[in-house]
């Protein structure tokens, strides 16, 4: 039976595809204060700005391509039972061809009703405007988990993490909870790899193998190390 390789990804894996990370730019995200565009308060204050912002992010995400780090995770399915837990709202893991992708913080290509949070539909790349509503009449919002909001997919992510034989972290600053807490929920003693351009200055679990470098540059080294454990 293949070993279960659980991969936890953040904005750093998509950086070399051309998407900006969050914390590499002084709290500004594409020129916007994160609090204005990624909080319920920001949405209440100026929904039009928030819709425009995510419409731009959606379009930008469509214009870029998966990179060799996304592709590596697809190749690893030949030797491992690969499960990806991503904080990213882009769909680069899916477009690369990964089979099991859990989005912790939502998906840019979907919208959610403000009236009924269970109403989540794909936008197929279309922009959303003020006045676009679900059938019951609630304004549609981006299907993105904002700061201060619950993370409904966390329970599933935790269950997957607790079954890992190998845990691999790629391109996350490990600053945002509860997501970052997954790192401390792995079965004790399993190998934990961390790939990052700059390994985050956080408490790392025992058996942690830091690989400092860009996700694409580290992909071949990572592959060699992982295949030894298969
Ligand atoms: N290769 C590898 N790592 C990289 C690269 C790269 N080319 N470029 C940047 N990084 C690393 C940075 O060093 C940093 O550790 O990626 C990480 C990006 O961190 P953040 O910008 O904080 O992104 P992330 O951890 O995914 O953010 C978590 O915060 O804003 C919220 O909900 C949003 O999901 C997001 C969450």
Description:
The chain contains eight helices and eleven strands. The protein has 230 residues and is α/β, with parallel strands linked by helices. The protein folds into two domains: 1-19 and 67-105 and 151-230, Rossmann fold, CATH 3.40.50.1220; 20-63 and 109-144, SIR2/SIRT2 'Small Domain'. Strand 2 (28-29) and strand 3 form a beta hairpin. The longest helix has 17 residues, at 47-63. It starts with a strand and ends with a helix. The structure holds adenosine-5-diphosphoribose (APR). Adenosine-5-diphosphoribose (APR) binds next to helix 1. Its main location: cytoplasm. Its EC number is 2.3.1.286. The active site is at residue 105. Substrate binds at residues 54, 57.
List the helices and strands and how they pair.
Blueprint: E1 3-9, H1 12-15, E2 28-29, E3 32-33, H2 34-37, H3 40-45, H4 47-63, H5 68-75, E4 80-86, H6 92-96, E5 101-103, E6 106-113, E7 120-122, E8 140-144, H7 154-161, E9 166-170, E10 192-196, E11 208-212, H8 215-227
Parallel strand pairs: 1-4, 1-9, 4-5, 9-10, 10-11
Antiparallel strand pairs: 2-3, 6-7, 6-8
The structure holds adenosine-5-diphosphoribose.
Adenosine-5-diphosphoribose is lined by residues 10-12, 15-16, 21-24, 87, 105, 171-173, 175-176, 196-198, 200, 214-215.
Short description:
With 230 residues, the chain is α/β, with parallel strands linked by helices. The chain has two domains: 138 residues, Rossmann fold (3-Layer(aba) Sandwich), CATH 3.40.50.1220; 80 residues, SIR2/SIRT2 'Small Domain', CATH 3.30.1600. The protein contains eight helices and eleven strands.
């Amino acid at each position: 039976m293949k070993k279960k390789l659980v991969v936890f990804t953040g904005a750093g894996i998509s950086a070399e595809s051309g998407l900006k990370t969050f914390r590499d730019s002084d709290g500004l995200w594409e020129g916007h204060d994160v609090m204005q565009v990624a909080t319920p308060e920001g949405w209440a204050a100026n929904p039009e700005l928030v819709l425009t912002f995510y419409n731009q992010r959606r379009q930008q995400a469509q214009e870029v391509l998966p990179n060799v780090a996304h592709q590596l995770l697809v190749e690893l399915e030949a030797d491992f039972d690969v499960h990806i837990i991503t904080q990213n709202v882009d769909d680069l893991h899916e477009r690369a061809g990964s089979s099991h992708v859990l989005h912790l913080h939502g998906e840019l290509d979907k919208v959610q009703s403000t009236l009924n949070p269970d109403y989540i539909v794909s936008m197929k790349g279309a922009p959303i405007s003020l006045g676009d509503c679900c059938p019951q009449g609630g304004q549609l919002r981006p299907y993105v988990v904002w700061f201060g909001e619950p993370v409904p997919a966390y329970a599933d992510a935790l269950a997957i993490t607790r079954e890992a034989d190998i845990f691999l972290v790629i391109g996350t600053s490990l600053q945002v909870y509860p997501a970052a807490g997954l790192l401390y929920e792995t079965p004790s003693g399993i190998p934990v790899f961390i790939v990052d351009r700059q390994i985050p200055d956080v408490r790392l679990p025992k058996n942690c193998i830091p690989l400092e470098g860009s996700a694409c540059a580290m992909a071949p080294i990572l592959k060699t190390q992982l295949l030894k454990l298969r």
